[in-house]
User: Fold this.
Amino acid sequence: MKKSIIVICLLLLVLNIVSAQTKLPGIKVRTLDGKEVLATEFSNNGKPFVISFWGTWCKPCLQELQAIADHYTDWNSESGFKLIAVSTDDAKNSAKVKSFTRGKAWPFEIYTDSNQNLYRALNITNLPFMLIVNAQGEIVYSHSGYVPGSETEVYKQFKEILEKGSAQ
Assistant:
């Protein structure tokens, strides 16, 4: 019985890895002003970028985004670091995302995925969730959850991906 549970868990892990996206799908999200944008149009002038999936109700999400906001100007000027925050608040709550984020004065681009189409297409199951996308549009790193200090790990990964890209 124990062996069959282990085998099933391993099989599910392999299926999850195989089903994971390697590129951003052509799913539409909205700017805070309501304009539709394809996720495949996200870019950072030939550099990698980070996408953070979050919700206004998710305390760890807010802690992570604020921790990044605290370093954002320095990281951006040092390396060109760019974060795109995608709110997964449902249609009922997505209207408050605009005023909520303006109150925070976060320096990054913010989009809404109120039907969670992008969230589901990327097989995300927990928030907060971050992706790093390289200059070729490939998802090369993902991170789920937040503990204080994990924002520096994401930044470290970003710089390593940036260096690899410029070495090619």
Remarks:
- Residues 6-19 have pLDDT under 50 and may be disordered.
- The domain at 23-167 is CATH 3.40.30.10 (Glutaredoxin).
